[in-house]
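Following up on my earlier thread - several people asked me to post the actual chain instead of describing it. Fair enough. Here it is, all 183 residues.
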Amino acid sequence: STMKIRSAARPEADHKALSEAEFEKLLEETHYQRLSMARHWPDTVLAELYLSPKSIRDISEFLHDQRKTMLEEEEGSIPEIGGFLLGKYCVSEKTGKYRVALTDFVPIVPEEHNVYQLQFSTESLVRELGDMQDNYPDLSLIGWFHTHPGHGLFLSRPDLTIHDGFFREKYQFAMEIDTMTPH
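Reply from S.P.:
Thanks for posting it. Predicted structure:
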């Protein structure tokens, strides 16, 4: 998978950010899988990403359902699919870097999707985001996820437009998976 991560910068006050102590308590309550983003991208503002077992399971089931669809589709015609990534985050007072916990995955219905792209209109994204905020008021939108079935891992120009238009917070990231490759 590939991710778009913003460069480190000074954090801004955010009413949804947890304190570092609250974030540690959250991590103790659920067995999260930790990914060190700073190890791979030293200049990232997103130092650590934690994946909950539920988010891993939900994304895996979503991808499994896509695999079943692939069996019914012509080879080379598998559409891109995606969803919102929800969770909690904190910012280190010492480093100004973020730690993010991915707790939930919510599939989204695109305006249009085909083999090469996933498209959302501003209206459909605003509607989906509003529904998500109503259904998950205690969680923050920490990023988005989509597939690139058989196309390799890269963020296309439309992907970057979606990310830069709707995911502007420093802790938000884009996750991409190529479901047609073994790894």
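The longest helix spans residues 53-72. That should answer part of your original question.
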